[in-house]
Design goal:
The chain is an alpha/beta fold. The protein is built from 13 helices and ten strands. A hairpin with a 2-residue loop joins strand 3 and strand 4. Helix 2 runs parallel beside helix 4. The two termini are 34 Å apart.
Amino acid sequence: MLGRTITLFRLFGFAVRADATWIFIVVLIAWSLSVKVFPSMHPGLSADTYLAMGLAGTLALFLSIVLHEFAHAMVARRFGIPIKGITLFIFGGVAEMHEEPKSPRTELLMAAAGPAASLLISAIFLVLAYGGVWLGWSAQVVSVFQYLFWVNALLFAFNLVPAFPMDGGRILRALLWMWRGDPRSATKTASDAGSAFGMVLIGLGVFALVTGNFISGLWWFLIGMFIRSVAQSTWQQQLLKQFLEGVPISRFMTTEPVTVQRSIAVSELIEEYVYRYHHKMFPVLDGERLVGCVTTRAIRDLPREEWNRQTTGSIAEPCSDENTVEPDADAMKVLGRMSASGRSRLLVVDAGRLLGLITLKDLAGFLSVHMELGDDRGVKAAE
């Protein structure tokens, strides 16, 4: 969902990052407030005044979104769920969890924390707006507070829609999980609701487009597409959990990975392996023994005139824990680790001996085949 991010600041140990798409929405909202919203509320003011109001409203809005996600993160920390950080992107913000809640109660409290924060923030801005009128603050300041009251109230209401990926969808899943005792069934219902809600928004967007409201129509269409995509991927993640949790990663590994001998020249490594297989990392062997890993980064750092003189073993580095995994490691935890680190390939190693290689492509292919066959049983159930 998210691409490259930059860290904006840290809040109580959580890194707050911004995706590149966040810049677009910041500019769009600031422009909309400065050119349309506030001029319609207070005509006749200077362009600089409208710009200041727009920037203040935009900054406070995104601070509100950060606090919404921060509420999720604090509850997650309370229940021992690791949070990678908070990332702002084109459709708002997200607290990036390393793992899913272990109980419906945890899910319910985590999901409810965000809307509760938005409701509280909305109430605070409402008090500031009325207090500003009573204290005689300028109409411009009061208008910004009124806007922030309404937008946080809308965020509260929108997030309570009982459909994934909104908080209301997670609340629905938690309640169904409590009632049915089956997280898989609860996830399916909430994900289906999210897909249906996404289609409704897509339909509204198309209607707005054909009736001439291009900006709103395009926006609703994109939000609907996003919600539908995330809802469907949530169900796929649930299937992955069912398929992979508790299953050793050796069940999915390739037992004959591409390896290189330490004695070959770097030039041969490039021509016969890098250009042929297009991998960024290769395990290096001395006979049958794993002695290290060689990466394209190490090759790049070696002067070209040394490519024929140096051997692969001379530029290989010890395979770190980040590149390796034990054969009995839980497949679902390995997948989470690969997703969090951005590594698509891991070596399966036992006591210094290379047993195989696991890739995201292997795991995705396994899920794809089961879904194609309509077989939603886990690995253990199928064996």
